[in-house]
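ESCALATION

Customer reports they have been waiting on this structure for their group meeting. Please prioritize. Original submission:
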Amino acid sequence: MKTAKTYLITGATGYIGSMLIRFLLQTEEQDNIRSYIVAPVRNMQKALRLFPEGVEFLQMDLCDAGCAEQLAKAAGNVDYIIHCASITASAEMTAHPVEVTQSIVNTAQNVLEYARRCRPESIVYLSSMEVYGSIGCAEGERVREDDVSRGKVQILNTRSCYPLGKRMAESICYSYYKEYGVPVKIVRLAQTFGEGVDAGDQRVFSQFARAVESGEDIVLHTKGASMGNYCGIHDAISGIMTVLKNGADGEAYNVVNEENTMTIRQMAELVAAKIAGGKIKIVYDIPDENRYGYAADTGLKLSGEKLMALGWRPTESLEDMYRQMI
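Update from on-call: job pushed to the front of the queue and completed.
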C-alpha cells in the first residue's frame, strides 16, 4: 500500500520543476493519497499563479548564506528532495556568467547542506548533458556516464560558466555523499521539452515550434552541425523519479531517448517536413560572433543504458514532443 511522502522541489516556477509538481499532484489524486509538497521560490506571485493550491511555497533565495538553516526551520524534515532550480537561458549565460556560476554552485551547496541536516531518503540533483563538453562519437558509439572526462570545455569562455558550474555542482554532490553520507543522485538531462513549455521560451526547439505556428521559415544562426540529444518531458519526469527511488547514491544517470539523437539541422529538417508539412523551409543567418550564446558544437551521443538497467523506458518521439508543445 502506498503511503504519503513529503517532497521538497526547487525551481518550482521553472519548466522541469513545475512539471514535476504537476506529476506529483496528479499521482496523489490517482492513488488517493496526500503527499506534502514544499517549494522554495523567489517569485511568490508567479508560484501561486501556477499552483493556487496543493503546494506550500517558501519565499527565499537559495543563493543566500544561511539558506540551509532557513529551510530546516521552515520545511523541517522531508522524505525526498529534487533540486531543479537553475538558469537555462543561453543569453543569460553570456551576459551574466558570474551570476550564473554563483547560482549553480551556491544553490547546490545550500540544498545539500539542508539535506545533510534533514536526512531525506533520497535527493536528486538535476545536472545537464553539457557537463560532457565538446566530444565526438564514432559510428555506433554512445557516451556513458563515466566518459565525462573525455569532453572539452573551454575555461576562458563566458558561455562555459554553465557546463563548468554544473561540473562543480556534481563534484559538490559527490563530496556531500562521501563525507556526510547524503543520499544524492545526479541526473544528466538531455534537452527536454514537450507539454508545458512556456510560450516565451527562447531555446532553439521553441523557436522552431513558433516558426511552425506562424508559418515562417526556420532561421538557423549556426550551421546546425552540433549533435542534439532529446527527451520528452513525461519521459524525463519518469526518469527523474526512477533515479530518485531506485538509483544508487553518489552515481550519475543520463536521461535521454537514444532514438531522439540528431543534429540541430536534422531536427530543423524534421520539423519543417513533418510538423509543418513542408510548408516552411530552413534559412541560414550566421553572425560573425556567438551573440546568441549557443554552446560549442559537439558530436555527443548520450547512452541511456545505465538508467534503462533500472527498468526505465522512454516512449516519446521527437514528433510527439513537438506536437505536445505546439
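Sent to customer with the following note: The first strand starts at residue 6 and ends at 10.
Escalation resolved.
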